[in-house]
Amino acid sequence: MARETGSCPGSGGRGWKNLFVNRMHDWPGEISSVASTHVTDVLLRPIMAGKIQCIATSTPATFAKLHADRHWLAEYFEPIEVAPPNDDAAVKVLRGIKGAYETFHNVSYTDEAVAHAVLCAKKYIKDKSLPGTAVDLIDAAGAAAQLEQGFLPEEVVEVQKRIRFIVQRMEASIGIPNLRKLAIHRKNARIVTI
User: What is the SS3 assignment for 4?
Assistant: First the structure.
């Protein structure tokens, strides 16, 4: 994923000034089957010409592998290790974003649940770091709670109501010798289920 500020080079504007590339180490086809060129191949000339400044994210191991394949990266990118936040900082991050997850999943998270998510993420998820792992936990918990509540999107509820109404009318028509009404109700049922 790339986010740019300014206009694209060659578009008549002044060109990109700053570019942020998330997950620079991803190879074509891993994230999108559309991309056939690695992001560093696209960035090579504008970076060397000084037209853009770039900040990218990667893991230390994958950056080392990427650097081995593309030696020019050492001249233009300097690895900076950012330590994951401590537990208190991770809890603050989760408290800051929990509102968006509460709205999305139609649930609410207590402060204790947020703190417990950080504790469990730190204890049980070793291959990733805080606060991302704790965010994944509250997201999964919200989705599970939403499913347990039986919450369905409004459109699905409306279709279910329509189907129940048609089924009731069909059942009422079965007792009536008028088969024409039954045929009409069957036709309506097929339209709703398609």
Answer: strand
